[in-house]
Amino acid sequence: MKFELVSLGVVSLVVSLVACTEPVAPAVQGDVSNTLSSEEGIQAGSDATQSSLSRSQETADSYFPWTHKPVCTEYLDGIGDKLCVYTNATFSNGRGISIFTTPRIAQEFAALPPFQDPSSLSSRGINPEPSDDTPTQPWYTALIRGKGMGMLASRALQRGDLITAYTPYLLAHMENVLSTQDREYYLRLAVDQLPTASRNVYLGLAKTYNDPSVVAQDVVKANAFEIQIGGLMHLAVFPESSRFNHACAPNAQYFLSSDLLTHYVHAVRPIDEDEELTISYAPPLRLHADRQQYFENTFQFTCSCPRCAPESHGSHKHRTLEDSDRATQDIIALQWALAQWTANSTASVKKAEMLIRLYKEEGLDAFLDDAYGHAALMYNSVGSARGAKKYAKLAAEASWLKYGFESVGQDKVREWEGIARDPTRHSSWRSRKTEL
Fold first, then answer.
1. Which of 1, 82, 163, 332 is paired with 52 by a 20 to 30 Å CA distance?
2. How far apart are CA 20 and CA 214, in angstroms?
3. Residue 59, C-beta contacts closer than 8 angstroms, at least 6 positions apart
4. Is 220 within 8 Å of 172 (Cβ atoms)?
C-alpha cells in the first residue's frame, strides 16, 4: 500500500510504505554481539568481571546523555551521514525520549537545556505530573461522537491561558532514503527503548492504516508535528498534543520551542468548561472545497467543524458555506490591499477594521496576528499613535501565541512592542496620505 508520512498541518515527507512482515534488522552499527572462538572464550571468562565493569562505565560515560548505546545505519549517501537511535529513558523524571537523527544533530540535541539541566522543564511547568498539591489540569480526554478520542476543557479558559506544554516521546529526522522496512526497524527500536508507560501510550495513539507491520510509522503519520533542530526538520510525536482534534476555526493555538523541545498550546478565545479543545491542522485562508480536499488527501477525514458545516452547529445556523467562502475571499483581498504601499494604494483604516471583524466572524482568533498587524501599521501610517499602539500590543500578544518566544516569534513580538512603545520611530509613521 502507499503511505505518506506527514506532520499535522504541513505535508512533510512522502514515503512508499509497503505492507510487510515483521521488520528484518538491517545492517547496523552499534551494540552488535560477536561469536567467540574457544580460546577467546577462555580469556573472556577470566576477564568477565572486569568486562562487565568496563561496559557499565562505558554506558555511563561514553553515551551521556543517552541511556542506551546508539544504534546506527550504515553511511547514507542521500543525507551524507548515518542515522542513529538515541534514547534517554530517564528524561524529564522518567518520561523518556528517543531521537532518530544524525550524530552531528544528536550533539545539538544533547546541548539543549532539557538534557543539561533537568529542572529546565519542571521549573517552567512542562510535562506536569498530577499531584495532590497541584490544581487539576485544564484539560481531560474523552470519546467524542464521530471523532474518536478528543480533548476537552476541565474548566473555563480565557484567551492566553496555557492548556498543555509537553515534550515528545519520539523525534525522527525527515529523511526519505531508508526503505520502509529499515525505517520501521529503527523507529520501533526507538519506541521499544522508551519507559514501558511511555511506550504503551505511544502505541495507543491514533493510526491511519492500523497495519501492525508499520505501527511506528503509522503513529508518526497520524500524529507528528514538525520541529527544526540543527537546521533540519524532524517529525515529533507529542502524545498529549495528539489528542487535539482539528477545527478550521480552532479555539486554541500551538507553537513549538526548539530549545525546550516543547509543544505549547494556549486558548485563543473564551472556552467553556467541557467544551472541546481544537487546533488547526491546515492554513486558515483556503476555501471550503480546497480544505476538504486537503484533509482527505492528507489525513483521510472530512471536516465537519462549524466553519465547514455551519448548518449542523446552532451558533452558526444563519451562516452558509457560501458566506464563509465569501468572507475568506474578502479577507485575502483586504490583506492584499493593506499590504500595498504605493501612491495609488487603496488601504484605509476602514479596511483594517473590516479585516479584524471578518477574522473574528470566521472564528479565526488563532490567526489574528495578521489582522492586528495590518491595523497597527495602517493607523501608524496615517499618524494615529493611539490606534497604532492599541493594535501593536494586540499583534504582539497574537504573535506570541502563534509563534512562541524563539526566533521568528521573538522578532515579530519585538517589532510590535517597539511600535507600541513609540509609534513615531517606526518607518511606517505617517507614510500614507490616506486620512483617518
1. 82
2. 8
3. 67, 69
4. yes
Residues in the chain: 436
Q: Cell 499613535 belongs to which residue?
A: 385
Which domain CATH number covers 144? 2.170.270.10
Amino acid at residue number 201: V
The pLDDT tens digits of the residues spanning 71-92 come to 999 999 999 999 999 999 999 9
Integer Cα distance of 347 and 343 in angstroms:
10
- The structure's pTM equals 0.86
- Does 30 map to a domain? no
Residue 378's Cα: distance from chain center in Å? 32
Both 205 and 319 in one domain: the answer is: no
User: What gap in Å lies between CA 94 and CA 88, rounded to an integer?
Assistant: 9
Assigned domain for 81 exists: yes
Where is average pLDDT lowest: 23-27, 129-133, 364-368, 387-391?
A: 23-27
Q: How buried is residue 154: exposed, middle or buried, by Cβ count under 10 Å (0-12/13-18/19+)?
A: middle
The three cell numbers locating residue 356: 479584524
Residue 52 falls inside a structural domain = no
Same domain as 350, residue 222:
no
CA torsion sign for 91, 92, 98, 99 is negative
Let me know whether 207 and 257 are in one domain: yes
Q: Which domain range does residue 120 map to?
A: 3-23+60-267
On whether residue 41 sits in a domain, the answer given is: no
313 lies in the same domain as 412? yes
* 3-state secondary structure string across 257-276: ECCCCEEEEEECCCECCCCE
Instruction: Report d(CA 229, CA 99) in Å as an integer.
Output: 11
Which residue, among 153, 135, 136, has the nearest Cα to 144 in the 3D structure? 153
Q: What is the pLDDT of residues 183-216, one digit of tens each?
A: 999 999 999 999 999 999 999 999 988 999 999 9
Q: How many separate domains does the chain show?
A: 2
**Which single residue is written with the C-alpha cell 553515551?**
63
Q: Are residues 254 and 390 in the same domain?
A: no
CA distances from 10 to 4, 57, 153 (A): 12, 43, 26
Q: Which residues pair with 225 in a beta bridge?
A: 236
Mark whether 120 and 255 lie in a shared domain. Answer: yes
User: Residue 345: which CATH number?
Assistant: 1.25.40
